Each structure stands twice: as C-alpha cells, then as structure tokens.
C-alpha cells in the first residue's frame, strides 16, 4: 500500500529547525556584541571560541532531537511503527575552534595594518570603522556556521538512523519550493531531482549527500518502498539539476583530490588525522592494506550489530 507523506508534516519539521537556527543566531549575536574587538586578536579569538562552543553544541543537540522525532514520526506513518530513533548531533569542539580561528583572519589583518606597521598611522575614526566592519563580517560568518550546524546535525540524524533501521530506508532531498527556483542551490536541486534513493546509490555515484548550508530550504526526508511526498515531483527540479551540470566543478574536484592526499603521510601510510598537509601520496604497503581491511570488517560488524539491535 502506498503512503503519501503530508507536506505539512515536512514543513512543520523545517519550521522547527528554522526556529532553532534563528533563536541560536539571535542569542549568539547578543553575546558577540559584548566583545571588545579592539583588543589584541588573540584575546578576541579566545573569547569567541568560549562563546561559540556552547551555542554550537546546543544548536546541534536540539536539532538532532527534532530530527530523531521527525524520523520516527514518518516511520510510524509509513510502516505503522516507530524504531526509537536516536539523536546524532556530531558536535566537534575542535572543528568549532578551527572555524573561529579561520574567521578571525580579516580582523587580524586589520589590526596588523593599524597597530603593527610603524610607517602607517591612519585616522582613529577610520581605524574604528574598519574594525567594526571586520567584526560584523566575523559575526555573519559565525552565525552562518551555527546555522550550518543545525542542518548538518539534522541530516546526520536522518541518515544515521536510516543505517540503523532494519527496514531498508531511502532518502529524498525535498525543497520547500515545489518547482526549480533560479536562486536556489543547484546542488540541492540536483539531489532533489533524484527522488527517493538509497544512500549507497548516491555515494557509489560519487555524490555526497551530506551537503548542507545555512538558510538551506531543503529537508532530508526518509522513506520506504511505496512512500511518496505530497506535492513532490523530482522532475520539477530538472532545471536546477541542469544548472548544477553547467557549473564549473574543477575547484571542488581539486578539493576532493587534496582531501585524498591528506589521508596519507610521506611514506604512503594512512594518517591518524593530525591535520598536517601532505602534498604527495605514496603507495600503500601490505601492512596498510591489512589495516584497511580490518577497519572495514570492524565497521561492517558494528553495522550488523546495530541493525540486529
């Protein structure tokens, strides 16, 4: 029997995530306004890290809980029973710190220009104005990161519970708009044009389904055989898919290649994740291959155990 998932249920889920994002951004902005950005950039950076950590944690935790309830709600509607979905927030304090360190770079350049160059002495009002501009841009970037975290935690929860589900779960990227929209993200529309598919089919085709961005109007929706979404037709997004195909993807492909290079050390061994850049990838040794096989076996056993549970 086919089941049509009400669009109102998905829109309600999207509204809930947007409320989480909006509230966290508002509270974060109030905290950021209390910081004196004329301090040495190291002091500003440390304060920003201390401010960002709890907001990034809370926003991800709440979003993941909302997503877990959404997963179980749709599962109960389509299959007649809940699974007991879990929240998977994927909070990473190291990633938060790294994002802050990257975001303060423009402010650091402003301070270098005004305070560290002996041969440059500009009007104090102009210095203050440039510092304010840098701090506003800093606030915008950090707010976007919080918004991204909400979408990322929600998507991770949906996909993660799909891997736990003993019933084979498919996924669809369902935008709020019913048709292709010219200013929308082409990659999201490309995913929307695929309809309900298994995650493995996307990854096998070289497509990364873990694509999220701040203010994203798309929801990752779980589904099972015979399920559909009210008003959702994948063909409506073919125009957006074409926009994706027409884009220049060379920069992204270079980033993927860089990521692959960074997985190995100078001797060609898999890295432990210390983050140091490696420009050349050497050949794997037999020991490395054996390690990879053992890791894959362990991961496969964990997946089987989770499905049995």
**Quaternary status:** single chain
Spatial ordering of strands, largest sheet: 1-4
Number of helices: 10
The profile of the biggest β sheet is: 2 strands, parallel
Radius of gyration: 23 Å
Inertia-based shape: elongated
Q: Kindly give the count of domains.
A: 2
Order of helices and strands: EHHHHHEHHEEHHH
**What portion of the residues fall into strands of 2 or more residues?**
5-15%
How many E-type strands? 4
Determine the N-to-C terminus distance: 27 Å
Q: Structural class, from helix and strand content?
A: mainly alpha
Mean pLDDT: 78
Work out the helicity level: 55-70%
- pLDDT < 50 runs, ≥5 residues: 272-284
Overview of the molecule:
The protein is mostly helical. The protein has 2 domains: 3-246, no CATH class; 254-308, no CATH class. It has 10 helices and 4 strands; from the N terminus they run βαααααβααββααα. It has a two-stranded parallel sheet. A two-stranded antiparallel ribbon has the order 2-3. Helix 1 packs antiparallel against helix 5. The longest helix has 41 residues, at 124-164. The model is unreliable at 272-284 (pLDDT under 50).
Features of the shown structure:
mainly alpha; single chain; elongated; two-stranded antiparallel sheet; 60% helix; 2 domains
SSE inventory with pairings:
Blueprint: E1 3-5, H1 7-32, H2 41-79, H3 93-103, H4 105-116, H5 124-164, E2 170-175, H6 186-192, H7 199-204, E3 218-223, E4 227-229, H8 238-246, H9 250-261, H10 286-308
Parallel strand pairs: 1-4
Antiparallel strand pairs: 2-3
Helix pairs in contact: 1-2, 1-5, 2-3, 2-5, 4-5, 6-8
């Amino acid at each position: 029997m086919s089941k049509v998932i009400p669009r109102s249920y998905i829109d309600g889920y999207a509204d809930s995530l947007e409320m989480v994002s909006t509230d966290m951004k508002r509270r974060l902005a109030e905290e950021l306004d209390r910081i004196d950005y004329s301090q040495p950039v190291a002091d500003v950076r440390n304060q920003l890290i201390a401010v960002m950590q709890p907001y990034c944690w809370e926003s991800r935790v709440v979003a993941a809980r909302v997503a877990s309830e959404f997963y179980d709600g749709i599962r109960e509607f389509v299959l007649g029973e809940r699974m007991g979905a879990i929240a998977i927030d994927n909070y990473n304090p190291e990633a938060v710190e790294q994002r802050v360190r990257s975001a303060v770079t423009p402010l650091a350049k402003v301070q270098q220009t005004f305070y560290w160059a002996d041969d440059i002495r500009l009007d104090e009002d102009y210095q203050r104005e440039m510092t304010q501009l840098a701090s506003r841009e800093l606030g915008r970037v950090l707010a976007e990161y919080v918004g991204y975290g909400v979408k990322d935690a929600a998507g991770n929860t949906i996909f993660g519970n799909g891997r736990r589900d003993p019933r084979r779960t498919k996924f669809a990227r369902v935008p709020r708009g019913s048709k292709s929209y010219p200013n929308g993200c082409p990659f999201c529309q490309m995913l929307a044009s695929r309809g309900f598919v298994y995650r493995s089919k996307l990854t096998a085709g070289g497509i990364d389904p873990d694509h999220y961005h701040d203010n994203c109007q798309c929801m990752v929706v779980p589904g099972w055989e015979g399920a559909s979404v009210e008003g959702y037709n994948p063909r409506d997004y073919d125009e957006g898919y074409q926009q994706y195909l027409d884009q220049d993807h060379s920069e992204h492909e270079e980033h993927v290649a860089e990521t692959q290079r960074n997985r190995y050390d100078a001797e060609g061994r898999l890295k432990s994740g210390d983050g140091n850049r490696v420009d050349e990838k050497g050949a794997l040794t037999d020991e490395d291959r054996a390690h990879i096989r053992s890791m894959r076996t362990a991961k496969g056993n964990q997946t089987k155990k989770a499905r049995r549970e």
